[in-house]
């Protein structure tokens, strides 16, 4: 019984310490009240410049993207979309894959890498019978154009296949 009394005391002490820690709010990076935030609105007599002024960079093309295909990706991403039917065992596919990885997809184009062997459903949907086929698709997934790039697997050929 003598050993039980100190253990009970230790347990009660630990419970009290934990309950006190739970009552202390964690530090926050945000201000705790609106009073601590400085006013940033200009006086009515001051002129307000636009937050962002147009620059030459605004006219720059959007960088291209090279992604693995996932269901729903076509509908989720705006802009020009290309399905690249790739097989790991295909040397021509590996050449285009390497070029896309090293140089990136063309500006304004999203290239989806589709596994030729696993995605039989997409091959059937778009009439793909050979690896290295690229299919340009619209926002709802309809086929706009396609080409087989086996003889010339390059980004230039991919762009030449555009509708």
Structure description:
The protein has 163 residues and is of the alpha/beta class. Helices cover 31% and strands 18% of the residues. It is built from 5 helices and 5 strands; from the N terminus they run αβαβαβαββα. It has a 5-stranded mixed beta sheet with strand order 1-3-2-4-5, with helices on both faces. The chain starts with a helix and ends with a helix. Mean pLDDT is 76; it is low at 4-56.
> CA-to-CA gap between the ends?
87 Å
Main sheet, how many strands, which sense, barrel?
5 strands, mixed
Numbering strands along the chain, what is their spatial order in the largest sheet?
Answer: 1-3-2-4-5
Please tell me what the overall shape is.
Answer: globular
Average pLDDT, all residues? 76
Unreliable stretches covering 5 or more consecutive residues: 4-56
For the CA atoms, what is the radius of gyration? 29 Å
**Beta fraction of the residues?**
15-25%
Order of SSEs, N→C?
Answer: HEHEHEHEEH
Helical residue percent? 25-40%
Count of alpha and pi helical runs: 5
Q: Which class do the helix and strand fractions yield?
A: alpha/beta
Number of strands: 5
């Amino acid at each position: 019984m003598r050993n039980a009394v100190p253990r009970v005391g230790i347990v009660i002490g630990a419970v009290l310490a934990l309950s006190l820690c739970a009552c202390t709010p964690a530090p926050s990076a945000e201000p705790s009240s609106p009073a601590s935030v400085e006013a940033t609105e200009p006086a009515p007599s001051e002129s307000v410049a636009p937050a962002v002024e147009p620059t030459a960079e605004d006219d720059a093309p959007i960088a291209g993207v090279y992604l693995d295909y996932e269901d729903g990706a076509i509908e989720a991403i705006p802009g020009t979309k290309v399905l690249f039917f790739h097989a790991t065992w295909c040397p021509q596919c590996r050449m285009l894959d390497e070029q896309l990885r090293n140089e990136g997809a063309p500006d304004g184009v999203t290239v989806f890498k589709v596994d030729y062997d696993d995605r039989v459903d997409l091959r059937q949907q778009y009439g793909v019978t050979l690896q290295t086929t690229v299919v340009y698709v619209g926002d709802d997934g309809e086929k706009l154009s396609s080409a087989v790039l086996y003889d010339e697997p390059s980004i230039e050929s991919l762009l030449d296949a555009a509708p």
